[in-house]
Structures are given as C-alpha cells and as structure tokens.
C-alpha cells in the first residue's frame, strides 16, 4: 500500500503534467510565428529543388506562414546541410536532402564540419527518387546489355556524368564498372542538367539524371533513358526497366529524400512539421506532381526515418569502401 507521501508526490506529478500540457499545446500551435526556411543543398531548378518547392507551397498553406525554399548547393550536400546543422533550433530553419548527407558523406570524407547523426534530427521521409541512366538518342545500343558490350569494345573509358564527386551517381558508375566490366571515367558536374546537355551534344557518353531534369531532352528526342535505379519501376516511367530487371541483379539502391531539423529543435515543433508534411504528401494534387517528377511520395514518423538511416547507412558505407572512393 502506498504511503500518503507517495500519493502526494503522485498527485503533484499529475498536477504538473496537467498544468504543463496547455503550455506545450500553445507552444506547438503558436509555431510558426515567422517565415520558415527550408534549405535544399542542391542547385536551383534541379530535381530536389523542384520537389521541395511543391511541398513548400503546401506547407505554406498548412502553416499559415511563408515557407522559403533556399538552395545552398556545394560539396555533395555538405554546404547546405552544415548551415542547418549550425542554425538556431527554434523552428525557423529545416533541411530537405537526399540520403547522401547521412549514408555517404561520413564514409566518403575524412572530415566533415558537422556530424549528421548528432547535429541533424529526423523529421520525416519525403520521397523515394528514381535515377535514370541517360544516353544520346542515337546511341548504337538499345538496352543495358548492348551498352555493356559497347563499352567493352570502345577502346577507351566510357565517360559518365553525375552531380558531383561522391554523389550517388558517381557510386552507381563505380558499381557499373565492377558489375559489367569495361572501363568508365567519371565526370562530375554542377547538377545533372549540364551533363544531359553534353550527352545530347555527344561530348559525354552517359549520365545519371533525375526524370524531371531529363524530361525536356527526352521529349525533344535528343536523349534516351536506358534504365532506372531502384527496387521498383518509377510510376512516372512504368515502361522503363530497372537495372536489376535488365542485367544487374541486386542493383536496387534507391535515393530517398527526407526532412531534418537542427538538433535541439523542440519535439513539439518537429512533430507538428512531420504531421503537416504527411498531410501535404497525402494531397492527390501534390502526389500527382511529385510522381510526374519521378518521385514516389512517402511520409514517415521521425522514428521510422531514424530506422531507415540505421538500416541504409551500413549498406552505402560498405559500397563506398569496396569502391575505394574517397574525397579529401
């Protein structure tokens, strides 16, 4: 039987919780009181920028404040991510980035200016992205098997573009060389759009690109999509086979895009933003726009995103170690 002292302590704890609840609710409901900035560590006009602008429009309506999309490209997402990692944890600044920030960079770089696992806290998954292998429209092969044979007989390394050293596109190329044989030479670009232009002009053999970036060149008949990375076919390009289907079993590493907050951001704000992202992604009009961009909308709780990072990080880290890729 509990003592009167214990009962008094229990009542005090209950009373404290009851008194605190309205304050927590008010703090959550009051946020945001000023415009919210979402930093995107990629070039303006690119795939992730386009994705976040669609989501940002929906969040502006839901939050009753302007949501500003702020592209801060550089160093394989490090520049923009570092800004958020060091921002005030007051609910005014967030990050939406690909998995490279957490799964690739800690292994690729000897030293980072911040610790992704400690300085950025999960908010929600946003989407799974499709990455295409694009070639010139009149390339002398029609599928992945034909491309592999062409590269082996080329007599020189086949050049392939990506959106930077250490990017997922760079690693995909290293996987190609290991899986398909032949020689491949990586050419880093500041985004996939200029790489696509060089493929169309014939000065680059292959490039990795997002569907939204490649759409104009594909529609113009200058570039052709050969295959897609990911475990499943893209809803935006259902007729395009994956690498696993065509030639490379196990080549199913997808890019995922997620939202993060600076460490120390109040849980109430993180939970509110997570709920609003989920609501925005559930809007059929939003989902239609994202699918057209080659994205598969997918929301999650902060805990579910943390579990995804725990599962995926060792996979990417092992791939990077096997490839020998390193960025000083």
Poorly predicted ranges (pLDDT <50, ≥5 residues)?
Answer: 1-9, 20-26
Largest sheet: 6 strands, mixed
Task: Please provide the count of β strands.
Answer: 11
Quickly name the level 1 CATH class of the largest domain: Alpha Beta
CATH architectural label of the largest domain: 3-Layer(aba) Sandwich
List the total number of helices: 13
User: What form results from the Cα inertia axes?
Assistant: globular
The CATH superfamily of the largest domain bears the name: Bordetella uptake gene, domain 1
Percent of residues in helices comes to 40-55%
What does this structure look like?
- The chain is of the alpha/beta class and 328 residues long.
- The chain has 13 helices and 11 strands.
- The longest helix has 27 residues, at 4-30.
- The model is unreliable at 1-9 and 20-26 (pLDDT under 50).
């Amino acid at each position: 039987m509990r003592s009167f002292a214990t009962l008094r302590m229990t009542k005090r704890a209950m009373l404290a919780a009851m008194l605190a609840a309205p304050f927590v609710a008010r703090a959550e409901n009051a946020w945001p009181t000023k415009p919210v900035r979402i930093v995107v560590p990629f070039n303006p006009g690119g795939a992730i920028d386009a994705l976040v602008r669609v989501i940002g429009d929906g969040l502006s309506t839901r939050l009753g404040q302007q949501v500003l999309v702020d592209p801060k490209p550089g160093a394989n997402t490090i520049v923009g991510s570092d800004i958020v990692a060091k921002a005030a944890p007051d609910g005014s600044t967030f990050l939406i980035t690909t998995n490279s920030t957490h799964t690739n960079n800690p292994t690729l770089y000897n030293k980072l200016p911040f610790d992704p696992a400690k300085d950025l806290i999960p908010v929600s998954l946003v989407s799974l992205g499709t990455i295409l292998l694009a070639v010139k429209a009149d390339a002398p092969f029609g599928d992945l098997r034909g491309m592999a044979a062409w590269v082996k007989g080329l007599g020189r390394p086949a050049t392939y573009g990506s959106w930077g050293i250490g990017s997922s596109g760079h690693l995909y190329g290293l996987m190609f060389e290991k899986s398909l044989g032949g020689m491949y030479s990586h050419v880093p670009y500041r985004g996939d759009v200029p790489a696509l232009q060089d493929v169309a002009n014939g000065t680059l053999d292959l490039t990795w690109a997002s569907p939204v970036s490649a759409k104009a060149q594909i529609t113009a008949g200058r570039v052709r999509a050969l295959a897609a990375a990911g475990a499943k076919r893209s809803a935006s390009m259902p007729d395009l086979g994956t690498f696993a289907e065509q030639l490379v079993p196990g080549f199913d590493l997808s890019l995922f895009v997620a939202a993060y907050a600076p460490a120390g951001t109040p849980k109430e704000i993180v939970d509110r933003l997570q709920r609003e992202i989920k609501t925005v992604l559930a809007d059929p009009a939003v989902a239609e726009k994202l699918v057209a961009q080659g994205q598969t909308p997918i929301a999650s709780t902060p805990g579910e995103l943390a579990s995804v990072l725990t599962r995926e990080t060792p996979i990417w880290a092992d791939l990077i170690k096997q490839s020998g890729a390193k960025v000083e």
